[in-house]
Amino acid sequence: MKRRTVLWLGLGSLGALAVGWGVLPPRQRMTGGADLLEDADSFAPNAWVRIGRDDSITLFMPRAEMGQGTHTGLAMLLAEELGCALDSIQIAAAPIASVYNNVKVAGGNPALSDTNPPISTRLATHFTAKLVREIGFMVTGGSTSIPDLWIVLREAGAMARESLRASAARHWNIPASDCSVNAGRVVRRDGQAMTFGAIVSLGDEAIETVSDFSLKSPREWTLIGTPAKRLEAIDKVTGSAVFAADVHEPGMLYAELELCPVVGGSLVSFDETAARASPGVVEVVVIPPAAGAPAAIGVIADQRWRARRAVESLKATWSPGAAGAFDQSLIADALAEGVRAHSSRDVYREKGEAEKIIQGASSMLRAEYEVPYLAHAAMEPLCCAVKYETTRATVWAGVQVQNVSRDVAAKVFELDPEQVTLVPLLLGGAFGRRLDSDFIALAAALGRAVPGKLVQLQWRREQDTRHDFYRPAVRAQLSAALDPATGKVTAYQCHTAGQSIAAQAIPRQLGMPSPGSDASNVEGTADQVYVFEHYKITHSTVELPVGVGFWRSVGHSQQGFFNESFIDELAVLAKRDPVEFRLSHLTDRPRHAAVLKLVAEKADWGRSVGTTPDGRPVARGVALHESFGSIVGLVADVSEGENGVPRVHRMVAAIDCGVAVNPNLVAQQLESSIIYGLSATLYGRISFKDGSVEQGNFDVYPVVRFAESPAIETWIVPSEAPPGGVGEPGVPPVAPAVASALAALTGRRVRRLPLVGA
């Protein structure tokens, strides 16, 4: 059994271990990798930064750049404290080492957390952080990249700065306090200066690492909080940015796959005669299921089109297995039964007597909502290149968990992980899809069949859509009681039913048992923004054969729609303005109230919306949601077009994300989240017939196009709180804001998504 598996299972021993270990904060994260970075021509004071004699400054980056601007934001943290220009920093992939593991991603559990968490929750958080630091994952996800490295990279920069300052001062034989650091130089009071590279050139005896340093105060920041330009933007514009599809070498080969079209099916037969006789074909490979990938058969050839034509000639037949009759009616029945079931309900949060109060209330509301499966639909379909050389191998891919993807490839190659080099590349979007390594396993199986050759596997759009790990379909039943005198909620209850992501993803991705309760089932309601005296949050896990995975904003994407739509319905029942009704339940949440007030002000809430140029009436809807450490308020202006199709004209968003490291990146991520969430709200739906996914390309799985994109305004609440995430929090409020605007416009409440063609 792997050490990682043993320690994960050790979570069950929390009570025994917490006394000796969990009460302490996670180990300081400067060490454990510097020896991997330093060479004779450079100085690496810690695991994060290397400074060369040629004045080069390299940040060793453990997080993936998938369009969210993470590399720029993280480089800003280092540059701020180091005292150098942002564009002087070069980004290099960090080696796979525990010092680079993401600690923040393990934090936060709606099943445990309260406004003032008990000691057991704090112990669990500390213990988990230490566990992840030691044997966890180099993961990019959960909107945690900036929050996780907020202190770490500033400390790395400050350590390097003070080491260089002290070394220069010794060289000049003056106090370090007589030196300042700016623009990549250490400067004396008389103006004499040495560049960082010149200090490094003094040699090992003249430079040493300083461990006594302090961080700048916010008043001293000159880079953090500014709209700095993205580091990778020029490379993307000029075409020099490297994605997996850009990996080439002379004599390389290309692979094409036919994947089993039925959930859980298997290969019965095929005829490879025509394929092997085709020009340029090198090998035909049968691939068993691995790492969540379905059974497959592939062809390797000297040209991609030749491989494609050869795959089509295989005449493969597939056994549908137990899921051959699986369709939408079975999904609907399972979710409906999950909502009705009482014996299988897991209680995540409970306070007071919500059920009793609701049953006896003179003014109450009960409603059911439902959302479908959703694909990730990143603009870059999955792609991976591999080169297997018997005793070692190299994998080129855009991934979200470097060490797991490497380990998956190593298992297929039957090599030790240390014999496999993973080269992490830029990602053309991911949204959680590349947390899985099924496409890595398939590429590795193909590469192993042709040792010594670089093989590139590029999925087609239809494969990317039909063989995804989807956001789960979920059904919800919400109920609440109102006090007729005050118009406020006295009791609130939410029960949901759907598949558990953790129950599938952890065994599939990590090869270890799921730890049990899956907090993502209820995130967004169990930890919602409103203050209720009595509440109960429950969930029933439904077993279905559909592969599910982490999708942008995860459970918040479903629960945000359920909860905020229901809150809006309660406001209507109470005959109160939706903004004012929400504010009345935020009396102890000043940050949330400030966000809601700001977005209402900027959206001109309460004023007449008017009509469209062709005279159609327009209405407004509002939503407020907290996720990933950030609070987002959203107002949508919506009209109803021909055939009842909604048209969203304007969306105004306000966010409190703590310190906005780069306001441009925050605005870009809000805009991206809104468009992504709007695509899901209007059109997103994966359906099944005879065990197969019905959707393939964007003609049947549409996304919002330029012509229908609304005008988007973003507003950032000034804050000195530690940064929250910004890559996902804009998604959850989109659906309820649009749906509530439609309800205000038409009088009809939409409780099922998508809004078009559901």
Compose a concise summary of this entry.
With 758 residues, the protein is of the alpha+beta class. It folds into three domains: 31-102 and 137-237, Aldehyde oxidase/xanthine dehydrogenase, molybdopterin binding domain (Aldehyde Oxidoreductase, domain 4), CATH 3.30.365; 244-321 and 382-458, Aldehyde oxidase/xanthine dehydrogenase, molybdopterin binding domain (Aldehyde Oxidoreductase, domain 4), CATH 3.30.365.10; 328-374 and 470-746, 2-Layer Sandwich (Aldehyde Oxidoreductase, domain 4). The protein starts with a helix and ends in a 12-residue tail after the last helix.
The CATH class of the largest domain: Alpha Beta
CATH architecture of the largest domain: 2-Layer Sandwich
Shape: globular
CATH topology term of the largest domain: Aldehyde Oxidoreductase, domain 4
- How many separate structural domains? 3
Share of residues in helices: 25-40%
Spatially, the strands of the biggest sheet line up as 10-11-8-18-15-16-17
C-alpha Rg, in Å? 27 Å
What would you note in describing this structure?
The chain is α+β, with helices and mostly antiparallel strands and 758 residues long. It folds into 3 domains: 31-102 and 137-237, 2-Layer Sandwich (Aldehyde Oxidoreductase, domain 4); 244-321 and 382-458, Aldehyde Oxidoreductase, domain 4, CATH 3.30.365; 328-374 and 470-746, Aldehyde Oxidoreductase, domain 4, CATH 3.30.365. The strands form 7 sheets. The protein has a 7-stranded mixed β-sheet. Strands 13-21-20-19-14 form a 5-stranded mixed β-sheet. A 4-stranded mixed β-sheet has the order 1-2-3-4. Helix 14 (402-413) runs parallel beside helix 15 (438-448). Mean pLDDT is 92; it is low at 1-27 and 109-116.
